[in-house]
Design a protein that fits this description.
Helix 1 crosses helix 2 and helix 4 crosses helix 5. The protein is built from eight helices and three strands. It folds into two domains: 66 residues, no CATH class; 107 residues, Rna Polymerase Sigma Factor, Chain: A (Orthogonal Bundle), CATH 1.10.1740. It is mainly α and 225 residues long. The chain has a three-stranded mixed beta sheet.
Length: 225
């Protein structure tokens, strides 16, 4: 008995029957999807007020990842019109800015810092207990965005790689600040807990007349010696 493979997108009507499975020719599906993505990237560049001299080849991987994450993962049979609409609703200027920054465009990085420093500072203040903590959080955000480590391809391992272009860059940055604030809080909480546990252990050892550290004499033993 043959059946239709539900995991294959219906991007056309060129179907074959192979080993009991009816589905689209893989090359046909891949070719049509690639065309949709390339055409969408070209339209996105045309929409951008400043495309940072990027070619569509730089945008296609990011657009592909977004389409797979937000559309094809949930519905492999997403109609081509829905894919095109999704791409056309992506934030053209923000995405071009981020990709240019990832590619080492210092002018783009300068623009990013100048345009979004107020956004980052505002979000950091909202997530921090005082001004010093907010400043530390802001600096940590920019370090994470710039990327202090290097990927296998030699490019910085930056959080910018996670921006899909689906929503505004300002909103995404506020979410990044909030997440980092949570991470910092958790680390500090673990540190405080560790210190409290250490104090309890020390008090327990003292109460029992035991050395705090194995091999270390108690004060009473030191006097007797």
């Amino acid at each position: 008995m043959t059946y239709v493979d539900p995991t294959l997108p219906r991007y056309g009507t060129d179907r074959i029957q192979r080993k009991g499975v009816v589905g689209l020719r893989p090359n046909f599906v891949e070719s049509e999807l690639k065309t949709l993505l390339n055409d969408g990237a070209a339209r996105l560049l045309a929409r951008a007020s400043d495309n940072r001299s990027l070619s569509r080849e730089y945008l296609v991987p990011r657009i592909t990842a977004a389409v797979e994450k937000y559309l094809l993962r949930n519905d492999p049979e997403t109609p081509r019109d829905d894919i095109s609409k999704f791409i056309d609703e992506m934030q053209a200027d923000d995405l071009c800015l981020i990709i240019a920054c990832e590619r080492g465009d210092e002018s783009a990085w300068t623009d990013l810092v100048e345009r979004f420093t107020p956004t980052v500072r505002s979000a950091a203040r909202s997530a921090s207990a005082n001004e010093d903590a907010a400043e530390d959080l802001s600096q940590s955000i920019w370090a994470e965005l710039y990327g202090l480590r290097t990927r296998k391809d030699g490019m910085p391992a930056s959080k910018l790689a996670y921006y899909s272009g689906r929503g505004s860059l300002a909103g995404w940055l506020r979410a990044v600040v909030a997440q980092l604030a949570v991470d910092v809080f958790r680390k500090q909480s673990r540190l405080v807990q560790t210190e409290e546990d250490t104090d309890l252990d020390r008090l327990a050892h003292v109460a029992e007349g035991q050395p705090i550290v194995a091999g270390m004499p108690t004060p009473e033993e030191s006097i007797s010696n």
